[in-house]
Amino acid sequence: MIIKSLLDTDLYKLTMMQCVYHHFPNVEVEYTFKCRNEGVDIVKIAADLAEEIRHLGELGFSDEDIEYLESLGFFQKDFLTFLKTFRLTPGQDGNLIYDLEKGTMELKFHGSWLRTILYEVPVLAMVNELYYKDKLEDRDFQNYNISQAWLNFSEDLHRIPEDMPFADFGTRRRIFKKYQRHILMEICDFKKSRPLSFVGTSNVMFAKQFGVKPIGTMAHEFICAGQGLFPLAESQKKMLDIWSREYRGKLGIALSDTLGFDAFLRDFDLYFAKLYDGLRQDSGDPCKWADKAIKHYEELGIDPKTKSLVFSDSLNFMKAEEIFKKYSDKAKISFGIGTYLTNNVPGIKPLNVVMKMTCCNGQPVAKISDSPGKGMCKDEAYLEWLKKVFEIK
User: Is the pLDDT of residue 149 over 80?
Assistant: First the structure.
């Protein structure tokens, strides 16, 4: 088994799950898997993937897991009680269809949002690990290049500013679990000997294991779901409002690019700008995004220096350092670094795999994004209507 704990996931899956538990317990959704890499054959791992997915149904949250989640301070007792008996049911929710001869594979999860929300991250981690295990079958898979990768990271960490905050966001893109664990262990050890603003990891299991802060608030699916729950023009604002009422000042970073940043800013008025601690960038030009965010706060009469800008799109330490030096005197700057930390293997192109919500309450939903290729929608007519409603070019 690759996934042995339901805590081996990103924090925002659990924080969104609590919000779904309280506000949308009966909403039906569909998630669709997509590999963005061209010419990559992942069909050969389909049979092994099906077996790994089946094993997810054997996992639950232990008493120790529940105690840890309670200690974080933003999970409520009724939700934690629900988690005590929660089990995934992949036999009912999953639909993996593949044809080895034709080289085709389709993977979907469908059913209650509350019951399916936890599949995404572990399934993407499985896909990566199975793919690279097959890719590196003639090498020492479990120890492949970990030491060399750490030497490269060590050089980066000696060079970057000591006050540049960054977190690990690499669970869904890791080459394998042992690799992520080793890199986190080395970073924690490095921090003991030299000042370093490593602020935590999105992976709840590793945060618990290494005694660091779990990082995360919401993902694109939360905003996407609003398209199937509320009048379309009001959907983004409705979901931002529900999140703020659920966490009441905690977990106050808003994801800004589900419908593109310009459409987001039109909805992110003075009320939300004061209510939320800051914004996260996950597509588009990071400097153009930062300039727009800072200008937006200033036009609303808010000092940008009081707000957080979190960058999390395809970062390495060099790119993060450039952004930090340019904007650290203008706002509270931090970074979530994913693939570069957990899948930085010379000579092998990282997989770009995603699993996005494509349907909510029986109707299509879409992620548009500010980067070509990062959007996702199954219905072109709906996508055109969405763009028209939100004035997206």
Answer: no
Residue 134: alpha-carbon gap to chain centroid: 25
**What proportion of the chain, given as a percentage, has pLDDT over 70?**
97
Residue 78 corresponds to which tokens in the numbers above? Answer: 């009724």
Give the CA angle between residues 307, 313, 315 to the nearest 5°.
100
Token reading at 312 = 């999390």
How far is Cα 105 from Cα 92, in angstroms, rounded to an integer? 19
Q: Are 99 and 47 a contacting pair, CB within 8 Å?
A: no
Q: What is the pLDDT of residue 148?
A: 66
Q: Which helix (H) or strand (E) holds 281?
A: strand 278-281
Show the CA angle centred on residue 73, arms to residues 10 and 360, nearest 5°.
45
96's tokens: 């993996």
pLDDT of 137 reads: 63
* pLDDT tens for each residue of 228-259: 999 999 999 999 999 999 999 999 999 999 99
Tokens matching residue 163: 């006050």
pLDDT confidence of residue 136: 75
Residue 364 DSSP label: E
Annotate 1-22 with three-state secondary structure: CCCCCCCCCEHHHHHHHHHHHH
pLDDT band at 374 (very low <50, low <70, confident <90, very high): confident
* Helix extents (H) in 314-375: 317-327, 339-342
Tens of pLDDT, residue by residue over 172-192, are 999 989 889 999 999 999 999
pLDDT for residue 150 is more than 80? no
CA dihedral 20, 24, 25, 27 (to 10 degrees): -120
Cβ-contact 312, 338 below 8 angstroms:
yes
DSSP, collapsed to helix, strand or coil, labels residue 105 as: strand
The pTM of this model reads 0.96
Q: What are phi and psi of 300, to 5 degrees?
A: -90, 0
Neighbours of 271 (CB within 10 A): 13
| Other residues' Cβ atoms within 10 Å of the Cβ of residue 63 | 8
Q: Within its chain, how far is the Cα of 84 from the centroid?
A: 24
Domains within the chain, CATH numbers bracketed: 11-139+349-389 (3.20.140.10), 143-342 (3.20.140.10)
Q: Which residues pair with 333 in a beta bridge?
A: 309
CB atoms within 10 A of CB 89: 13
Q: Nearest to residue 102, comparing CAs of 52, 44, 53?
A: 44
Nearest Cα to Cα of residue 251 among 277, 225, 269, 227? 277
